Fold these 4 entries.
Entry 1:
Amino acid sequence: MTEPAIALRDVTKLYRRYAYRRQFSTLKSALLKGSLASELEPNEVLRAVDGVSLSVTAGSTVGLIGRNGSGKSTLLKLVAGITKPTTGTVDVRGRISALIELGAGFHPEISGRENIFINGVMLGLAKREIARRFDEIVEFAELEDFIDSPVKTYSSGMYMRLGFAVAVHVDPDVLLVDEVLAVGDEGFSLKCLDKFADFKRRGKTILLVTHSLSLVERYCDEAVWVDAGRTRGHGDPRQVVHAYTTDVARSEERALASADRKAQAAAGAEGDTTQEAVSEQPVVAREPPGDMFRAAEGRWGLGPVRIDRVTLERDGAEAHVFQSGDRLAIRLAVRTPEPVHDFVFGISIFNAEGVCCYGTNTDIEEFEPVELAGAGEVTFAIDSLDLVEGTYKLDVAAHTRQGLQYDYHRLLHTFRVKSRTKDAGIYRPRHRWSFTPAVRLTPRRT
Amino acid sequence: MLTSLRRLLGYRVLIQTLVVRELKARYRGSVLGFFWSFANPLLLLLVYTFVFSVVLPARFEGVDNYALFLFCGLLPWTWFSSALTEASNSLLANGNLIRKVLFPAEVLPLVAVLANMVHFLLALPILILALVLFVAVPPSLTELLWFPAVVAVQLLLTLALGLMLAALTVHFRDIRDLLANVLTLWFFATPILYPWTMVASRGPSVAGLPPAGKVLMDLNPFTHIAISYQEILFFDGPFGHWKWLLALAVAGICLFLAGYALFDRLRDSFAEEV
């Protein structure tokens, strides 16, 4: 039992990148240049997997997580033996079944029945073994009525189910799964999960590539986080998933921050200090659009009051990604070249569908403007950001009490709210559940 | 290399299954189904007979029934050329298997060659029937004993070339287009449309060698296969070309090993290049 079922030692896989030159090199040019041999050598390479060592104990279920293009699937193909490592060794003990592409060997013209046999032979079963499991396969795929029709008449769901059914009935010692649980309807997904649980009970080793982190937390004994071809974390699923989500949130934060800067720069929110500079901004429309609620992002206004900068903060630090319930402060840096006595500051929060989740301004909340002179700061603080998960955009504005716009930023500022609870709606009221003794519920351990 | 070859034997069930699949799939959905394997050569024979006896009467010395003579060389050639065309494309056409499943790639060109061999064999009854009906002296039994040997040599040669082409086409897609034209040229360079005696005496002879026409034809491996079929099936008299056939068998074995070695060497690159 201590013998690992899968052992990767310092495995590196290089892929050749398709450079312009390589793509158009042909047999002719290879022959002409006498470089037939060197043309077959990679010239520009991509390290898809970079020095990964990994050992998976027999009977454990391991989840591979990571961003798209991080090398998870390559790793799986290396374990399956479909591709060979450039350096390093891969050892796998026992029969492997790889659920990487379901129904890869199906021939569209012939019946499901014949395809089961052919696919089974391809996956290394003897005909006798297939015949014995045939009924079970058909039943699992729920294709009793269609098994004698050509596979080309199957819906994509039927096709996938059949592929999945054959692959899991190969009775492998090591099962490799690449994001195939998205197959079929809810019922079939559950059946697949049951099948995995069954494998697990019988002491089979499962290596699972997935983007479903909850699946990893629930089903896997270990998780491996792959990033840019290297393992960034390996161990308890909950810890690895947490480390991964934290990292994802951080890079999301960076991406939002830079997108925000770009949007503001495009709308001319930064850099201008004089009235003349404002009038030179081509994207600043003098007139507000006719229908405010349909207006796309942009900026307009006649001045003189300007909103120079909008920052989102959590506990004093600039942020773009918040957890539901976090403290959020929206800080407006405002400025006017001449004293103004009629002014209102407003803020609205929109969700991704464009629904206004909340909107308010200083006038609605009965602040009387006295005087704005020079530069200052306006802060709108929310003690608990009770929004459901999603991306939100902000409108911020400075205008007169009659609604004449000084400076209006339409949907220029973006932030994300993350939440462990996947509740729905646009607003999460403060709430709690309580039950009388006859109604018994207990918090789920995840 | 040896272990790879031994593994190849282990794939025979897989190969057999895939050949059967190929044959089944080809006629699936047609009304006549497998009957086409007989009907196709029969129709082809009728067309050739019409063209070369009515439209364009062909006269060659010693060839009294030209359409049948043509047919003896044409059927094996059809096997050879379509097998090579399919084999060279086999890895690309089954990219899914190469990229996504642990699958022995050499099986694919082998299946292409073997499936076409089955078509060839299915067409033979038509040819034999026509020979018995229309040729004065039907082939003798001792001659027919050589027939499997010719098929075996052709199979070996086709497999060798099929493996090489399949492996190289993955890296150089041009081969697919090139091959079609090379095969056309090759067809005309092989004594299928004309008896080899017609060309053998042509051309200058250099340094005591036979005439250039004969030298060139002798260098073409399919010449000997075509001549063998023609001698066994069409022409009277004992099979006299057996020395060439044996030489070709030896060359075929070497070529097959070379082809397999090349395939084996390029194998690891398939999953990435297909």
Entry 2:
Amino acid sequence: MNKLGTISAVALIASASAVFAEEVRVYNWSDYIDESLLEKFEQETGIELIYDVFDSNEVLETKLLAGGSGYDVVVPSATFLQRQIQAGAFQKLDISQLPNHGNLWSDIQARTEPYDPGGEYSVNYMWGTTGIGFNIGKVTEILGEDAPLDSWDLVFDPANMEKLAECGVYFLDAPTEMIPAALNYIGEDPDSHDPEVIAKAEAVFEAVRPYIRKFHSSEYINALANGDICVAVGWSGDVFLAQFRASEAENGHEIDYAIPNEGAQMWFDQLAIPADAPNPEGAHKFINFILNAENAAAATNYVWYASGNEAAQEFIDDEILEYPAVYPSEDTLNKLYITTPYPPRVQRTVTRLWTTIKSGT
Amino acid sequence: MNFSRKALIGIPYVWLLVLFLVPFLIVFKISLSDYAISIPPYTPTLDTTNGWWAGIRELWAGWDFENFVFLTQDDLYWKAYLSSLKIAVIATLLTLLVGFPIAYGMASAPPEWRTSLLMLVILPFWTSFLIRVYAWIGILSNEGFLNQFLMWTGITSEPLVILNTDWAVYIGIVYTYLPFMVLPIYSSLEKLDESLIEAALDLGCTRIGAFWSVTIHLAKPGVIAGSFLVFIPTLGEFVIPSLLGGSKTLMIGKVLWEEFFSNRDWPVAAAVAVILLMILIVPIVLFQQNQQKQREAAK
């Protein structure tokens, strides 16, 4: 490049940054927003938005606890949020800077109360369930038309799993979701923090372990979509993503998701502001932007997770609002359970138990 | 010795001090701490509110070897170290088995080809390591290219389950680390004087005998260097087993990840890392000695 070119390039960069007087850095889950909203935010507020993504709570937590993450808004799940609040990772929200706060859904606020009492540190972004995704054609071909698609029997009954093994079953590699599911299946309290009760989950997994192909928390999306596997314990919206990818590819695989009738875990992803956020004012502007009913609806219409925003329901597609796997009926909702974080010693027991289950060691 | 010469010699030492010793001491320090729900997630940290001296004394009092004792109490850690060693040894041998003929072929090729062949070995490095490992998922999966090809040719009727087994891990490691094996062997074979083999043959050696006592013997430094370059990073490998391996693939890199991210227990994670480093020091020292011997032999 000649000198003139260099100078004009520098001038261009300088002018580009001059358009935005301030910036907001957001750290959210991957595939978790309608990206056109990002541009809309910049246009409405004149704030430059730097949007990064992560794919596990653990990665986010490690950044937060190391300090100086540089992010203004982060989106941890509620169980993780609770411990992070304890560690002093967040600042309290200033409700006066959030005129759209009233749009929040009080039912969901009530359910997140145990994690963040009074909603002082966070607001709900979206919520969902941990259930079962399956390939309808393959599963009914193997187990017959009366396959228990809406029951944990599908993945915890060795008789079913033995037959499903050849077409492939993935489990989430998330002990804090899988162990409560197994406890719930055998009629124990899924949120038990008693190591003796938790140990009972081992037998449930032991019985089906030989038939599980892999424990992984994101590969099942593509594996389900391209027919590599036929059943996965997974997160609602992820399975819908697999469903969408399969129909895009027109490969003949029909994927669906069910909340098992024995109950399933309900989880919440919360918008929060780190204690050391460089631009807390901009962070409030971003949260307020997301709390806007139409914006929240746009996000849900895109990712197919239920929104924690009640006012948004007016703008959410009927197809989604009436889909019981996304917006469960009152009946199902009553069967959903929540879990709270384990104390450090119990967490170690849980992780160790999970290693034993996975590797046999 | 003048100042500039001293400074020049000092650079590698400063490099080692800043990029190896200081980080190691930080990790070692964390391994002596205890878990806490705070930022950062361990205690004690240096608190100088009562002055530096009191802070340092408090820090010293809070340190102990509890985490190292803990590692000996649970058989998981020993099994993981041993299993990593086993995988690293097998993978190194497999890489040698594949890499040696390639290096030999390259060294025997006409000189005008060699640069292009060398380029071909290095070329994969131009693409991200992560993407190349991901590509293997597409090749090895049940509905992947390999199985589709095998079933199309009729060699197998059922898809071979390779992905998520130890075999997939070996394939991934051999593929990824192959250049580290090929390049040192190639560089020792390239220097090999053809007339030595002719001499061996003239003196009554068989072809195989000459290959063994001349080629293999002279390639030994390259084989040793290549083997260490593969073995050392493989021992702590995390990405390949977590992407290609199954849940049964037990490796210390994965255990370390779990301590750090799932248990959020930085002190135990740091203790695991310190022991891994101590296990690695043995082959690294052997490697250094080998290099030293070679350099002396070259003089």
Entry 3:
Amino acid sequence: MYKKGLLYALMGTVALVMFMSAGQVMGQDEDYPQEPIIFTKPVKAVIFDHKSHIDNGLDCDSCHDDPFEMAAGTAEENADFNMKSLYQGKYCGTCHDGESAFASNTRCTLCHIGVKGYNRLMGTSGEGEGHH
Amino acid sequence: MKEQRSTKPDFVTDEERREFLKLGLKITGVMAGGTVLSLMPISEKDAAAELTLAGYDNTPYKPHYCMVIRQNDCVDCEKCKEACVKTNHVPEYGFRTTILEREATDNEGKKFPVFMPVLCNHCLNPPCVRVCPTRATTKDPKTGIVVMHVEKCIGCKTCMAACPYNARYYNEEKKAIDKCNFCWDTRLSKGEKLTACAAACPAHVRVFGDLSDHNSEVWNLIHQPDKAVWVLRPETGAKPCIFYMND
């Protein structure tokens, strides 16, 4: 009886360890938002895709918590979240400086998807939107 | 069929003239039916002055209002549209300016959108003015702005059909056609220097100004020998006054 209990306890521990380590592997690979982040301030709209940045070899530490806190919408609350700050090396400009990644004052519409891109993602027609 | 013109420097096309000016050479003569050109080296500053697009210099308008669109900086934030709607009381179903979108591919094969702001082109030969049966739309003799005289408009929409730029709509409240007038009644006549859209643009895409003033930003933008400048639908012969370029 005693031996059987020990065996179960051992099996349980092994299972728990395997489960935890599996979780950790999952965490490294996929524990980031799968849906793109859409910024709407100060202009509508800028798209940020976690996956394409991770595919380029970045990990969580590269951008969190500096220059970006790990909570969507935080940066947008700052008055200096604009292109001028990017050119000074803040926010996206930390890497998008023309050396680590393409410069912030080039290839505008790769990130700026516009009101049209925003409406497409949100599934709204957009005609008439923002008119009032 | 190519247009044959007699005046010597105009015999070559604007494009050819521009190509030579990029090299710092001015065409001073055309001989032997265009096969021999007489060229003269000139300074960069003089080259800019020579770039004047055929037909756009010596217009009677002063100021000659026009707009230069620095297209690749447009990110479709549509703040221009919002400002226009607010300033000119454009109804929800209407528009005085729009942003068109097309998809392009960069040299890495990545797709990206290209946004193109469109508004009334305030043409030198406006087709809308020519077709209006009641002279409800005219080209202002002082500023070159294509204006509506709402009280004369019978709403026949012939101008809408004639416009190469789809820049007109029928306003149900006014019972007349409405269109961009460079904010003449709402801003310029009150002393403002810019249209609402140009003032609202955060990326300086819409540059508004006086083409008759050779010190103006608009004139200087479109007179850079190394920059391509284009207009929409030049083949209509309307001579539009909205110029497009990349920064």
Entry 4:
Amino acid sequence: MEQEQQATAHPPVSAELSAGRNAYLKERIIRSVWFATAAFGALSVFFILAFLIKDGIPIFATVTPGEFLFGAIWNPTGAVPAYGTLPLWVGTILVTIGAMAIAAPLGIACAIVIAELASPRVRAIVKPAVELLAGIPSVVYGFFGLIILTDVIRVTFSIPSGETWLAGSLLLGIMALPTIISVSEDAISAVPKDYREGSLSLGVTRWQTISRVVVPAALSGITAALILGIGRAVGETMAVLMVTGNASLIPDPLYNVLSPIRTLTGTLGIEMGETAIGSAHYHALFGVALLLLVITLAVNISAMMILGHIRAKQTGTGNGPGRTAALITRFRREIWISVAAILLLVVAVTVSPLAAVLLAISGAIWWYLLPRIQPRYRQTAAFGLLYAALAVVLAALAIILGYILINGLPAISWEFLTTAPRALGREGGIFPAIVGTLCLVAGAIAVALPIGVGAAIYLVEYTRENIVTRIIRSGVDLLNGTPSIVFGLFGFSFLVIYLNFGVSLLAGQITLALMVLPTVIRTTEEALRGVPASLREGSLALGATQWQTISRVVLPPAMPGIITGAILSIGRAAGETAPVMFTAVIFSSRFLPSSLSDPVMALPYHLYILATNVPGAETNQYGTALVLIALVAVIYLVAIAVRTHYQKSIRW
Amino acid sequence: MNLRSKPLIAFTLAVILLGTAFVCGCTDSGAVPAAPVETISVTGSTTVLPLAQLAAEAYMDTHPEADIRVSGGGSSVGVKAVGEGTAEIGMASRDLKSSESETYPDLVEHVVAKDAIAIIVHPSNSVSDLTVEQIKSIYLGETTNWKAVGGPDAAIVVVGRDSASGTREYFQDAVMNKEDFTTTQLEKNSNGAVRQTISQTPGAIGYVGLGYLDGAVKAVPVNTGTSIVDAGVATVISGEYPIARGLNMFTAGQPEGLAADYLAFIMSPDGQALVAEEGFVPIA
């Protein structure tokens, strides 16, 4: 900057011209690089889609698309093979609905507490705790669910088996929470202070400010959070397949949450690894993966339409959230009435009509009394409920962590951490698995972070909405909704088989990188958008080039958000089983990988194997789970420390 | 608002982060204790896997230059892998299917052990024995209460294996006469997972290899009409137990090098001792 100022102060004409040309060229190159990264992010999803179609289409030589979609029996190895996916996709939808019924209210409530109510000290504890919840690998959730949750459900409801839809939804609900909380919280925190101050200065309570001003203003972010949560729930494999029983049937009656159920992802998880390549069954599984992608596509498109609608309303009138708030208020009654009607109907059918009538009466009393209660008391009640939601979430975290800590600590020893497994992992240690996981994560982040941040910079800073960005954005959104098991299938089909990498470290790293890429892009985008436009305008007005503006003005304050994204990505990559179990891992190895083409052990897969394949490995199961969680926690602590540092130093 | 110094810190940190990622990735993969000379890959059936892994560990203890990599996947994967040459040895808990021996005519079968499929229930279940017909009726979904087969008055939770399992395929042939399982069957993708579920579920029934029996589940004796037979090593050797099969390893052509040594080790008295230790039935 100073040099440039000097240059303009004493202008040797030709030097200035060439400097200008160079700067222009530099800008163009930088822009092209970011465009390339964005295009890569978007194209990879179409590439995945193409590969799934290539391997999925041959199944229609065996069955018609109608039979495949609506056949009620999935039995690929029966006397007469049947490839009907109806029970599978119905199962996926039901489990997801159940999970969101749990996660949406809890998640939004927690986000409000963290962003609006909690003191900085409480926040400093709660926020990392929520991120830790995100860091708990799905296979650990599944392990916990298999051993504790299904048993609790079986005893509580005195049913023959606890492996049920309910167990799956509970686990998925907890797993979707961190995504919903952190993204909603970012959205709520991003609402400018003026809105709150304006509202409070009118003499209303904090609760009224939150519920009528802040939350409506953050609505697009919260919607995005819920959609991300749905994506997480639809695509989750390991936890679901460990607790839902995997019986391929449609619950009877349809709302019987105590029925076993099988999801699309579960089917892929248990059958994919064992199917002969090229058989009808193999192609049918790719068909299932396609179906899974189409469902996530549908979810994402509807979500994008909702978001687009909200944005259009906001920008169309030009006076922002006030207008949106009015819109929401106008619709609120209709939304409430329809939700209440559905709820009553369900209660009337499941429990008894009497209970429904009682519920309706108490609801009516509630409806009548609510506006007549003083705002102050309403605020107390609302805050109480919000804190209760936070307490529930923290309790879930404490139970899971406590359980694994208590059972896992006795297994931990120097030998356990530094030696190779023996006797199928019943004895010996997990050193190769620790190293394997570190290698997988390091490779994945090294690939995903530059591409992801670059793509986000291009999308936010360099473009106005046009057809190209819309395609890129749709591609990234779709990639984001793509279930981890689908990445696993793609990695297997493309990297392992087609490119002939074999089951290898490299195939696993690339697969994981693709998987976390959208998380990096999304969070970086959100962070960049959080930087006020006035800063950019100020910088540009001073004569800075676009790249100077981005690198010196926009990126630094966006760093905390970008780092948050990297944290979430690392957590996911370290804990994921589904993408690596067909691409990178082996059951057991006493050697460390010597090159990128070697297969590796990985902690999550090792835990999965110990929990489901090896009898008599209880101690080492808990030990492995504990090490996995501890590893993720350490990564998080480092990253959180970095973020806190930034948050202290940057405020506008 | 001293934003000037921020970008420097930001980029330093970003570089450090990325740097550690790279260095970590490289040094980790670089640091190898005594590079192995010969590597073979053994893959396939999860039933045979414990045996193969134990034998591999014992073999590598005395032969530090060998690296034997054992992984699961299922019988079909094992046959496919060795047939396509992606693994040196394929494991299967069943015989080759006719389609497989057509596709891969040069596969050589090595029977490394025998195994019985035990019918297991929760330890609290009072059922004394089951005939093959009763087991079949339960898995068809026709018998749904333990009372009908001499057990407590409780619903039966049918637990089976996933559709790529060799154990399931054998079970479907030997017990079910190839008829289809009930749709309410809970499907697990490994012997261990079946055992885990049964040990936690009082009303459940499942089937696993002998190696997976322990105190957490109860093996139900099979009533053959003439006698009541426990699942065990002795009854498999004597041929009395009706649900038993060979555990196989396949090689493409006659085995060579490390694969031949490894197979020879499994067949040796030391190797067969491991077979017995893991709860399988040694061959002769």
